[in-house]
Amino acid sequence: MGGRNDFDYYVACESDRPKNCQPQGGVLLIGGAEGEKSGENEATRWFLERAKNGKYLVLRTGRIGGQADWVCKYYGDYIHSAAELAINSSQAANNSRVIDYLQDADALFIAGGDQNEYQELWEDTDVEDTINYLVNEKKTPIAGTSAGMAILGDYYYAPDHQGVLSSEILNDPYHFNTETIHKSNFLKIPFLERVITDTHLDRINSQNPETRYGRALGLLARVVNENGLNNYALCLEEGAFVAIDENGKAQVFGNGTKTGQDAYFLQTNGALPEQILPGWPLVWDNEGKAVKVYSIPGDRHGSGYFNLNNWQDAHGGKWEYWFTFGGKSGLRKRIID
User: According to the UniProt entry, where is the signal peptide (predicted)?
Assistant: First the structure.
């Protein structure tokens, strides 16, 4: 049993309405800057409706946050209760009380934070088994933002230090800070098999001097080079929300403007990288057609969609190619006519 402070549980609100015992499956991926975002309201309602007036649970590490309080304040009519559970050790992740709290969830939200902590503390524990049971058997809808979205992919990047920059991974796809690209024996999320995710694609600040579009290409290059061409990437700008229903239809919610709310669905185009070696620039050209990408700008109605069953049927966006000649050439894009 873990120490007294290894986990914390907080109930933000609870109603007297009877709880529906059968949630509806679904996945909500959030690009990383939720809060006061246009399009967030519609995406949140899409997600909480699937809880069927059930118990909403936020899962995180560290201290209890404000997500459950926020849901109570603005979306209390959609849920029976809202609570937060912080799990801070592998011992706590095997604690029977923790598992009881988790098993009751009818909607599960994995908060942002540090995906490396999630992997280190929860993988190969009863928490891992319970999340997989909830999602795949109970059909509990699951959402993740930032780090919480990262670990929902079949592959996930969990850096021990500062995340690798686009220029770093394109100049050296085996940069020292890419050692933690994992093939998941962790969470098994519907329609994200063979998918690596990335978030905050458009963020630029003092800690993030470059956008992450080139990083997305580099991460996919590593995955396909080591695991084959039949692998994918799903990457979001900060204001994008991707809602995946039980049939694999992915709708994109966002602010409806020209920047900051796009979702990108990346797939290979029949050729491995021409050069992918430690210490050498990544070359993935294939005559300017290395990776085929469908980009969808989110709007309030989730009008744009992508079919994750076949990675072909899509609406509301545009197809383009992403490629790189290597090194300082960086990521290049070309719209498919």
Answer: none
- Whether residues 266 and 328 share a domain: the answer is yes
Q: Which amino acid is at 234?
A: L
Query: Structure pTM?
Result: 0.95
> Do 211 and 128 fall within a single domain?
no
Residues 137 and 178 in one domain: no
Q: Decide if 322 contacts 220 (C-beta within 8 A).
A: no
pLDDT at site 52: 94
260 shares a domain with 320: yes
Domain assignment of residue 212, given as a range:
153-337
What are the residues whose beta carbons fall under 8 Å from the beta carbon of 225, sequence distance 6 or more?
A: 173, 272, 273, 276
The mean pLDDT value for 141-170 works out to 92
What CATH number has the domain bearing residue 80? Answer: 3.40.50
Pairwise CA distance, residues 250 & 67, whole Å: 24
Collapsed DSSP state (helix, strand, coil) of residue 25: coil
Q: Which pLDDT band holds residue 328 (cuts at 50, 70, 90)?
A: confident
